[in-house]
Task: structure prediction
Amino acid sequence: MSFYNPRIETMARNELKALQLKKLRAQLKHVYENSLLHREKFKGAKINPEGVKTLDDLKKIPLITRQELQEWVTKTNDTFGGRLCVPGERVVQIFGPPELFITGEPIITGLTVYDHNIIAEQLARYYKMLGLKKQDILQIASQAWEYLSTSLSYPFSMFVGNSADRLLDFQIIYQLDLGPEASRTYATAKYFKPKKALFTTTHVDSLGLTSLAEKWSVKDIGYEHIIFRGYTTALTAQQKKKYQEDWGAKINNMLDISDNLFFAADCEEYNGLHIWEDLFVVEAVDPKTKESVGAGESGKLVISNLFAEAVPIIRYLTNIDITLDEDECTCARTHVRLFTTNYK
Result:
């Protein structure tokens, strides 16, 4: 097996839990002192950071929903909705994730340089886990904010493409000319569907691009890996099989909750989506009782960010149905894995 950070990725679970608790207590202090939203949530529950002495004590802190974040933006007239925990001059990038297009106030997220570096670390672990090598070119058909964060995943050569909806013009030239070993794109990108037939496209003359008249097949691109990025679910085994047949590449899932800078991804064993527990605490919560459920029981995904400086969210309740598995994966990684309802 290939590891980017073997000490962390294979850490014994008792050590991993101790590291989580240490980071959690520091993060709780950070948000309590600097985030108006979190401070009010804590006070409403009559708890302060010192009251969290174990990981189980995290459950005393109220959940935060997307609707609540949107309401805070409206009532405070604050772009970050009371989440920002650092001075504005330390924020080096601001972005609206794809969820921006959901009805209601957009949820804006900011990053510090440190946040960028940790995002790069977690993505580098995933890319190495998926089998990418240092010399590989990774093509990204994705949101602009990810170009910067992903380009910091320095173990890999980086090719930054255009957004997925421009794939049929610029991206085809990039694919054929550069021959990337891997591509990361939306699981729902309509322009990234396989073209079994040979394809011809013409480019805009004003851009100085010539007509691409030669015919090609997608298998000629030579992808070794395609990483499908989803926001609420994962590709099923049947979908993976079909894409693998169409593209002639290994197909992997990546779950992305941009609001909380969270990713989860397959390993080469295809045994659930790995989560880096040194960076997040995850829970499955009963949607009716809002109580945490045990490993293997179905619930809504809840994410607490342990590393973000700018706009971390503690106990962020998503609408994603999952189960969690804390057993060591056959890839030898010890961090928890999640399964969405359609993963298997």
Notes: Residues 21 and 344 are 31 Å apart (CA to CA). Confidence is low (pLDDT under 50) at residues 147-173, 186-215. The radius of gyration is 21 Å.
